[in-house]
Amino acid sequence: MILRMLLLLAGLAIGLEASAAAILVPEGNRNSSQPDIPFGSGSRTKAAKTTYEAKYQRVLKFLRDDKTLRRKIEKTAKDYDIDPIHIVGAIVGEHTYNVDVYDRLQTYYVKAISYLRSAVAFRHDGEDVDDFIKRPQFADCEELEGSYAIWTCRETVWNDNFRGKTVDGQKFPDDRFGAVFFQPFYAGQTFGIGQLNPLTALQMSDLVHKRSRLPELDHRNAARVYKTIMDPDLSLPYVAAALKKSIDAYDKIAGYDISKNPGVTATLYNVGEPDARARALKVENAARRKRGQTPRMPQENYYGWLVNEKLEELRELFPDKTVN
User: What's the CATH number of domain 20-122+182-315, 1.20.120, 1.10.530, 3.40.50, 1.10.3470?
Assistant: First the structure.
């Protein structure tokens, strides 16, 4: 019952306008030097015998050389009322610190078709996710409306009730819901030009269906989900939707306008769970005010720091655009 009330209140908060004008988070980094880069990112880069700068230059060249992709990014950004620099920031960050970008856009289309033909399912330790979410712990989630609310609820239930715990004699991994059930090819990996997690795509399904008129995704059809996140024509709307959700969450929950700081939106794209992070920041700042301290602004991580550091260079991709 407590979880149910919290979720309903959270849903109400999302649907309401902020009670006061959101505080603008200006361009630029709050940190004078780049925050620490995770070990996993460094080990992947070292294994590939490359450097972060080389990977950054490669994805930048990829974006500069492909006018068709830039037009797709620009159109998608317009559909979701965000500046295209946010989408570029997500792509650049992912391909600098996650996996290297492919040489040609066409490679993503080829990969998308291969996933559609694959026999893949979302499961863990022999249990399909469709069966897993029918456990009683997830019952309250079924009363919510919309893919974002439902899957965010399920992610919360996983974190609170299963992650790193033993339930009914079964030990569950101390890892993200998306990594345990939704990445059967390579645990911990994401896919496509936006390096999307399938769980993120499922969360954004309703918004993408509404804004881009694409078919809604179904967790019982994993191959279709993978095809979607690999196909640039289909995946870019999901990237934009995730960024839009983060901007809205910080505006309406935490009271901050992050629409002019691509480094912060890139950070949230990287770490996920924007609603929970916005609520945590709101709680933290309420406590800081009681102590007479200045509220803390949203800050960039190592990933977003790079985007802000390279912002002038990245904006040259869309010289006539400004952040909304």
Answer: 1.10.530
